[in-house]
Amino acid sequence: MKKNTINTFLQMKENSDKITMLTAYDYSTAKLLDRAGINSILVGDSLGMVMLGYEDTLQVTVDDIIHHCKAVSRGSSNALIVADMPFLSYHASIEDTIKNGGRIIQEGKAHCLKLEGGRNIIDKVEALIMAQIPVMGHIGLTPQSVNMMGGFTIQGREEDKAKQIMEDALLLEKAGVFAIVLEGIPGKLAKSITEELTIPTIGIGAGKDCDGQVLVTNDMLGIFQDFTPKFVKQYANLKDEIDSSVRSYIKDVKDMSFPQEKHTFK
Ligand code: KIV
User: Fold this and answer.
1) What is the pLDDT of residues 124-173, one digit of tens each?
2) Which residues line ligand 1 (CB under 6 A)?
3) Residue 73 CA neighbour count, 13 Å, CB half
4) Per the structure, how many domains does the chain have?
5) Is residue 142 part of a domain?
C-alpha cells in the first residue's frame, strides 16, 4: 500500500478520488484503520470527550495530544497522521505556536497539524508553514469555540455568516494550508467552498460534496454512548457487542466455564 502524504490529498482532489479520514487515539485502533487502507488518521482533540470523558475539547493539552499521537504513530504505516493543536496552544503568540506545534511533530511524530479558525489565526498558520510544518484548516462548527458559538450549533445558515466562512476558506488557502475540514455547515455552502478551492475539503456534517469525509471512529463504530450526532453513520454497534461479551465473561467466570483445559498451562 502507498504512503499517504499531503501531495496524495492534492492529487486525490485533482482525480476526484474521495479522501477518507478517521480519528484514532491509540496503537491498536490506528493499526486497524491503517491496515484497512484509510488515507489519514486524525489524532483529534475529540479525544478529550471520547477517551478522557470531558464535556468538551477545551481541557485537552499539548501533552495529551503528544501522548496519543505517539501511540497512533507506532500503529500506523501508510496513513497521513494529522494532529489537532489543542485550545490555546496557538492563540497567545507565534513563538508559542511554533513551540507547541513543533513538539507535536517532533515528540508525537504527527506529519501535520490541524488548527481551528480562519482570519483570526492566519499569522499562526503562516508561521507554522514557514517552519515547514504542513497545516490543515478547520472552519464552520469549530468545537474549541463552543462558548463563543453558544453551543455546538450548525454554522453558516445566514447569508452573512456563510460569506464569512467562504472568505475564511479562501484566506486559509492563500496562507498555504493543504486541506480544510468543513464541520457542521449546510451542504450547499460546503459544495460552493469545495468548488471554489484548489485544495481539498474534508467534511464532517457538511454533506456529500466535500472532497473527503472524516468521522470520529468511536461514533461510527458505536462505542461512544453519550450522544450520536445526526451526521454520523454507525457502521457497527460495538457498545452492545462489548456489553454482551463482558456479561458472558462474568457468567463464565462465575459458573467456572472459563478457563477451560485449553486455556490452562500443563
Ligand atoms: O477532534 C476531532 O475529532 C475533529 C474532527 C471532528 C474533525 O476535529
Assistant:
1) 999 999 999 999 999 999 999 999 999 999 999 999 999 999 999 999 99
2) 23, 42, 44-46, 84, 181, 183, 204, 214, 216
3) 18
4) 1
5) yes
